[in-house]
């Protein structure tokens, strides 16, 4: 029996991630270790799933199917489910599924080979006084009167600062314009609007 027929047979002619039965093809899982051979190197997936593997803008609701497919006994299906859950972590709900997921050590190494778990771990995260994540372009409001160093200006509490920029070396600093002057603000004195 051919490699593709083995994968199709295991999948029962359905997408192994979402269960769709149309527009299916065999997808070889990237970074498969050399000791894994045959049908254990691939999954049977629909074009919707495959098209969203390597793009930033994903349909998060489509991927709620991972709640079921992460329990699939086939190692390549578990690996791709793990990777997709990590790629969708910013949605919030995938972390709960990752916390429940169990994989053997070798499978976990295979899954982590693409670096999905560590991509954002090293990135600086800017948070306001309430712990809300700030991103470049956000608007914030001052929660305290602040003296601006090097001038006699005082930035008053309640002042809105629009289109902030982030300091890429220090997660406690952001920049924005107050009364037409570009100043550095400390994140613990601002609240996201």
Descriptive notes:
By secondary structure, the protein is an alpha+beta fold. Helix content is 25%, strand content 21%. It contains six helices and twelve strands. Strands 8-5-12 form a three-stranded antiparallel sheet, with no helix packed on it. The chain has a three-stranded antiparallel sheet with strand order 9-10-11, with no helix packed on it. A two-stranded antiparallel sheet has the order 1-2. Strand 3 (126-127) and strand 4 (133-134) form a beta hairpin. Helix 4 packs across helix 6 (105-112). The longest helix has 13 residues, at 75-87. It is elongated, with a radius of gyration of 23 Å. The N and C termini lie far apart (60 Å).
Brief summary of the model shown:
With 193 residues, this protein is of the alpha+beta class.
List the helices and strands and how they pair.
Elements: H1 3-11, E1 24-28, E2 42-46, H2 47-52, H3 66-69, H4 75-87, H5 93-100, H6 105-112, E3 126-127, E4 133-134, E5 140-142, E6 146-147, E7 154-155, E8 160-161, E9 165-166, E10 173-178, E11 181-186, E12 190-192
Antiparallel strand pairs: 1-2, 3-4, 5-8, 5-12, 6-7, 9-10, 10-11
Helix pairs in contact: 4-6
